[in-house]
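Data card: per-record layout.
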Amino acid sequence: QGAGRVPDPWQFMMRELPDVVLVRARIAEPGRYYHRQRAIVLRRGLLLEEERRYLWHELVHALRGDEQCDAWANWKMELSVEREAARRAMPVEVLEDAIAASVNWYDFVGRTKVPEEWVRFRIETAHPAEKGAVEAARRWQESA
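The structure for this 144-residue chain is written out next.
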């Protein structure tokens, strides 16, 4: 995986979590991780960008070994998982390269290969050490 290249959650899953299966089904929520079955279930019919986003989220649950993944019962855990998933999907090197190659906010978002609201979340929750690297995206975001 080269610097600045958008990470592929399916390759990551095969490489790092080969015992976890991925299933697409008609479910209410976009994604769900079942620890005992070592299974990630994604809602059938998601757009590719949405599937990438929710797969990263559920992969973080799998990596952590989370057994109880109920957003309403444990929103602090879900927020922590969401931050980690966004960092894995959009490492700072990817953001820097996408900013350098982009002409505006929408071009930048397209290069991240995830939904716009998740890019906004990633920029807004960037670690202080990353703030300088994402400043151009922040300015584009404000004008979009």
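Known properties of this structure: Helices lie at 9-16, 48-64, 75-89, 92-101, 105-112, 116-124, 135-143. Strands lie at 21-25, 31-34, 39-43.

See the next section for split statistics.
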